[in-house]
Amino acid sequence: MSTSITLKQINKLAIPALIAGVAEPILSLTDAAIIGNMDYEATTSLAAVGIVGTFFSMLIWVLGQTRSAISSIVSQYLGANQLNAVKNLPAQAIFIITILSLLIIGMTYPLAASIFKLYNAAGPILDFSVTYYQIRVFGFPFTLFTIAVFGTFRGLQNTYHPMLIAIVGAVLNIALDVVLVYGIDGFLPAMHIKGAAYASVLAQVVMALLSAFYLRRKTDIPLLVKLPFNSEMKRFVFMIANLFIRTLALNLALYLATSFATKYGENYIAAYTIAINLWFLGAFLIDGYAGAGNILSGKLFGAKDYKNLIELSNKLIKYGIVVGVLIATIGAIFYYPIGRIFSNDEAVLSEFYKVFWIILAMQPLCALAFIFDGVFKGLGKMKYLRNVLLFSTLAVFVPIVFWTDHLDYKLYGIFIAFTFWMIARGLPLIINFRKTFISLAKNA
């Protein structure tokens, strides 16, 4: 790719990736919005969804790193015009990750109550958490399958078909949520929190089927597993191992935040559930440009086109900040109506409104961190990503969240810790990238 990277090229990848990326947070937000407005145990159910959502996100992020690893390897081979050498890698990766997901179901299903007690869940909140999780977990293998296929498409510089799949999944989940949670008079009884779980599973199954269909019809990447393992499997496994450690650090931060919010009381964990899911939504909106950075940086790095790699990073910084500011501005304009989408409990809303402004203010910082996170994944620099997140979590987030808890800042403290966490995640990536590739571009 010798010509200059244009905004049109970036947006052609970023906008579909953005739409596809919001599928998972929309599934969680839909559950939160529908459940938060039930007539039956709404606040308790909303708290349970927040706790399970945090744990479920951890599982997805730990094993869903196949998307980044597959995308990085495929895009680099595409840039080097050697794609045939890795055509059998995606099927092998999907097979391995699916087996792991089945093992996790077998281990976590009978231990659900013990797991959620670690999040300080008790009484009705614990009962609802177990009920919700023991249904929704069966969608886990289908989610991981879809994520792995999305990684293959990304490596091939295709974000359009993942977008179509994600739209279908999100729309289906919303429709099923309304029908199954509230029921249909005289035809289908209201299933409440169970209905939300079944809706998510069914949507994930449909997305997996569509992913398999489009991969077969639109690419020549096979889904049939063939041995021996691809020569890049070793690098793939090391990437996954580094991302696994990195994701454990990420989820330590989320675990502590959820655990503290639960400790503060039912209204706090319900408010935190709304706030953290909106933060996830903002993150996944920005992830469209992070996805473009992932896709294009891998291809440019494979082609050794370092000048365009620097130009890409400069443009992504600019576009990411614009998107972050835009998200923050929209959130500020609709500050109070947004809260009422998810709950009509004034005590819950009061706590949410106290901290929502912090989430909005974080968005430009999140943009820079997430975009360069995507760029480094495209470059295959998973070890450096691991080290940065270990530092930002253990040396920044953990001390701050315990300190602010000691000061009794409650949700303020949690989101202050998240803000400094994002700064510590983003700055080292930007500095390292520019130090490395500006010199390479000059010598190219």
Descriptive report:
This is Multidrug-efflux transporter. The protein has 444 residues and is an all-alpha fold. The protein is 83% helix and 0% strand. α3 (42-63) runs parallel beside α12 and α4 packs parallel to α15 (346-379).
Q: Regions with pLDDT < 50 over 5+ consecutive residues?
A: none
The total of helices stands at 17
Proportion in helices: over 70%
Strand content: under 5%
Compressed to H and E, one letter per element, the order equals: HHHHHHHHHHHHHHHHH
User: Rough shape?
Assistant: globular
Distance between the termini: 14 Å
Content-based structural category: mainly alpha
The counted number of beta strands is 0
Report the major sheet. none
Radius of gyration in whole Å, from Cα? Answer: 21 Å
Look at the structure and give the mean pLDDT: 88
Q: Secondary-structure blueprint of this entry?
A:
Elements lengths: L6 H15 L1 H14 L5 H22 L2 H14 L9 H20 L3 H6 L5 H14 L3 H16 L4 H23 L10 H26 L14 H32 L1 H37 L3 H28 L1 H8 L3 H34 L2 H25 L4 H33 L1
Helix pairs in contact: 1-9, 1-12, 2-3, 2-9, 2-10, 2-12, 3-7, 3-11, 3-12, 4-8, 4-12, 4-15, 5-8, 7-10, 8-10, 9-10, 11-12, 11-16, 12-13, 12-15, 13-15, 13-17, 14-15, 15-17, 16-17
Keywords: Antiport, Cell membrane, Ion transport, Membrane, Transmembrane, Transmembrane helix, Transport
Family: Belongs to the multi antimicrobial extrusion (MATE) (TC 2.A.66.1) family.
Protein name: Multidrug-efflux transporter
